[in-house]
Amino acid sequence: MGDLVNLIGNVGFPIAVSIYLLVRIEGKMEILTQSINNLSNVINDVKKNSK
C-alpha cells in the first residue's frame, strides 16, 4: 500500500500539473489561431485591393 501511495505522489502530481497547463494553454492557442487566420484574411484583402 505504501508503494502505491508513493507512486501516486511521484507520478500523479506531474500528470495533474501537465493536464492543468494543457487546459489553460488550449484556450490561448484557439485565440491565437483565430488571430492568425484573421491576419491572413486581411493580408489577402490588401493584396486583392492593391492590384
**How much beta, percentage-wise?**
under 5%
Helices and strands, in N-to-C order? H
- Helix fraction bin: over 70%
Radius of gyration: 22 Å
Q: Total domains, how many? A: 1
The description of the largest β-sheet is: none
Overall body shape: rod-shaped
Q: So how many helices?
A: 1
**Which class best fits the helix and strand makeup?**
mainly alpha
**Which consecutive residue ranges, at least 5 long each, have pLDDT under 50?**
none
Number of strands: 0
Nearest-integer average pLDDT? 90
* Cα separation of the termini: 74 Å
Could you provide a short overview of the structure?
With 51 residues, the chain is an all-alpha fold. It contains 1 helix and no strands.
Task: Give the SSE layout.
Elements: H1 2-50
Q: Which keywords apply here?
A:
0% strand; YvrJ; mainly alpha; YvrJ family protein; transmembrane helix; transmembrane; rod-shaped; 51 residues
Could you walk me through the main structural features you see in this protein, from its secondary elements to its overall organization?
The protein is mainly alpha-helical. The protein has one domain. Helix content is 96%, strand content 0%. The protein is rod-shaped, with a radius of gyration of 22 Å.
